[in-house]
Amino acid sequence: MSDTVLPVTGASPYDVVVGRDLLDRLPGTLGDDVERVALLHSGAHPELAQPALDALVAEYDVLVLGLPDGEDAKTAATAADCWEALGERGFTRSDAVVSLGGGAVTDLAGFVAATWLRGVSVVHVPTTLLGMVDAAVGGKTGINTSAGKNLVGSFHEPAGVLCDLAMLDSLPRDDFVAGLAEVVKCGFIADPRILELVERTEPSTLVPDSPVVRELVERAIRVKIDVVVADLKETGGTEGHPGREVLNYGHTLAHAIERAEGYRMRHGDAVAIGCVYAAELAGRAGLLDPATVARHHAAFARVGLPTTYAGASFDDLHAGMRVDKKARGSQLRFVALRGVGDPVVLAGPDEADLRAAYDVITGGTP
Ligand code: GLY
Predict the structure, then answer these.
(1) CA-227 nearest atom, ligand 1
(2) Atom of ligand 1 nearest to the CA of 234
(3) Which of 63, 150, 269, 302 is most buried, judged by most C-beta within 10 A?
(4) Is 332 helix (H, G, I), strand (E, B) or coil?
């Protein structure tokens, strides 16, 4: 099957390419002016970086930087180590960064590229499903502080994104399934065909080299592209649409759960629970019909994602939701649905509705 090229339009246009065995596209994506390339990858999986290194060494002076695993990469100290290494190697404004890894590597590498000499080119090669359908597209970069995730960062759009589905062949099944949470989320916020594909496909056949997964990935990326082209800097949408904030569907509770779990729960697992919670809440607020609420429970569960959670009290999670980046003053804000593909911001929901929806998530009756 030939590669699919998904253009991202705007002030800094670039392509997201979806296919298999795409690494030979790296030099063409980096362009002609680049002499030095910093390949930032997860140090826990050096074997994944070798093919990218092979694709780069013939044409560039390559600096390979192995990063701490997962969210541990997203610190000011790691960014500073990278800046030092770029400085020692004499990286100039026409040199570039390549990220190869999951969402955390993408976020850190994007941040380093955004800040080195006030911005050099970056090409993302995501190695996880979550990275492909979310982190690598749209130019968000960031690191964490002790006060929370992604509190320091900038928007820095990549020069290109290579979503090489062959990278997913070796991804542990639980991580692959966690990535499907963002795909199903895209179905609910914008693309009902994603939900139909999930509902009619035998879950065990959802494997990286299947045509249906290829279609799901491409559709989820298209959803993300449409959103970021319309509202790159998350300043808000038009005609009642939440704008880029819509991508945070399910994330208000998800972030509070991740925090309560000390960031040991997979992001996608928390997002699945959070989307079901958001649907229950929208149902109670009179926005969403019972059938679409039930569809949330079924769709996430079908692909093997959790839809219940009882690991923290409502009061703890409520406090966690108050520090969400979307909160304004003391008012909680949720992305909610009035139907599939019909998102709206629900500001200041009823406290009784918040609790009742959480009762369902803890295993109570819907
Ligand atoms: N991950 C949400 C966004 O890119 O806006």
Answers:
(1) 5
(2) 5
(3) 269
(4) coil
Question: What's the 359 CA to ligand 1 centre distance in angstroms?
Answer: 28
In sequence order, what are the residues at sequence separation of 6 or more whose Cβ sits closer than 8 angstroms to the Cβ of residue 364? none
Which domains are delineated in the chain? 4-170 (3.40.50.1970), 179-361 (1.20.1090.10)
Distance 139 CA to ligand 1 centre (A): 9
C-alpha 283/C-alpha 292 separation (Å) is 9
Ligand 1 binding residues, C-beta < 6 A: 134, 138, 140, 244, 247
Q: What are phi and psi of 261, to 5 degrees?
A: -90, 10
Beta-bridge partners for 346: 334
DSSP 45: -
pTM for the model stands at: 0.96
Edge-to-edge strand order for the sheet containing 160-164?
Answer: 4-8, 14-19, 160-164, 121-126, 96-101, 36-42, 61-67
Paired residues of 336 in beta bridges: 344
Give, for all 366 residues of the chain, the pLDDT tens digit: 899 999 999 999 999 999 999 999 999 999 889 999 999 999 988 999 999 999 999 999 999 999 999 999 999 999 999 999 999 999 999 999 999 999 999 999 999 999 999 999 999 999 999 999 999 999 999 999 887 889 999 999 999 999 999 999 999 999 999 999 999 999 999 999 999 999 999 999 999 999 999 999 999 999 999 999 999 999 998 888 999 999 999 999 999 999 999 989 999 999 999 999 999 999 999 999 999 999 999 999 999 999 999 999 999 999 989 876 666 667 899 999 999 999 999 999 999 999 999 999 998 655
Taking the centre of ligand 1 as the mean of its atom positions, its distance from the CA of residue 341, in whole angstroms, is 17
